[in-house]
Amino acid sequence: MTLHLHQPPAAPGTPSSSPFCTKTEILLRMAACEFVITPEFVPANGPKQKIPFITDGDAVIGDSALIQAHLERTQQADFYKGLTAQERATAQLLLHSVEEKLYWVMVFARWQFDAGWAITEPAFFGMAPASVRAQVSAQTREEMMRNLWGQGTGRHTAAEAIQMGVDVIENLGLYLGENDFFVANTLTPLDATTYGTLITLLEMPGSPLLKEAILNQPNLCAFVDRISAQFFPNALGAAALRSVA
Fold it and tell me: pLDDT per residue over 1-37, tens digit each?
């Protein structure tokens, strides 16, 4: 049965503007699932009122972690094959650092500042029908800013928030070292979510300081290019993204 990945469309062969959409697409490919991307612009249409989500027959699953669990259960996908229990725990803890810290700094830079929003709005909603674009984009921005405040990152100054993100990026570079992948030199969901976050920060950082923090670490740039070559061969390389706004 063909699964449907519901997310905003991206240019052919390139990752989504959402790290979680990119992560989910990589997980589907890692699990060797047959799937199609079904365009979706309205987060409220998902079961968690956010994007991405998948439909698998009558099942509708939102949140990338729950999608991963669904694939493990229904497709017998083993995303941590060959890892010890400790290595798996390490991968999951690092994943949370990216998704629960660096992600929110990215949201802060993209959605809270008018300069970042000027880039974010057309990237996320530019292909939405004109009849709903203004309303949906405004509602989504308002919701994201409420979420930022409730989560806590939105309460920081710009300098404080961005430095927190730079710290995570620098630590990721130190941890990766000369390896191809982050844990046991094996592709795991940690690599999928880290790639999704780094590539979107290179394409649309909101703050140039976040982008420069990545570009200043050749091993992270090589990591981005490595995952792009495997899953998104038409994506721009890290060097080319240096000049992208």
Answer: 899 999 988 766 678 888 999 999 999 999 999 999 9
Q: Is residue 48 part of a domain?
A: yes
158 vs 142: CA distance, rounded Å: 18
Q: Which of 74, 94, 126 is the last residue of a domain?
A: 74
∠ at Cα 50 (45, 55), nearest 5°? Answer: 60
Strand partners, 3: 35
Q: Do the domain assignments include residue 79?
A: no
Taking CA atoms, 94 is separated from 154, 158, 238, in Å, by: 22, 24, 22
- Non-local (6+) Cβ contacts of 31 within 8 A are 71, 75, 77, 79
Range of the domain at 154: 85-241
Contact status, residue 217 vs residue 173, Cβ threshold 8 Å: yes
Helix (H, G, I), strand (E, B) or coil at 113: coil
Concatenating the DSSP letter of every residue in 152-195 gives: SGGGS-HHHHHHHHHHHHHHHHHHHTT-SSSBTTB--HHHHHHH
Residues 146-180: pLDDT tens digits? 999 999 999 999 899 999 999 999 999 999 999 99
Q: Is 17 exposed, middle or buried (0-12, 13-18, 19+ CB in 10 A)?
A: buried
DSSP lists the bridge partners of residue 36 as 4
Choose the final residue of a domain: 13, 45, 74: 74
Q: Which two tokens stand for residue 108?
A: 């802060």
Best CA proximity match to 54, nearest among 3, 94, 108: 3
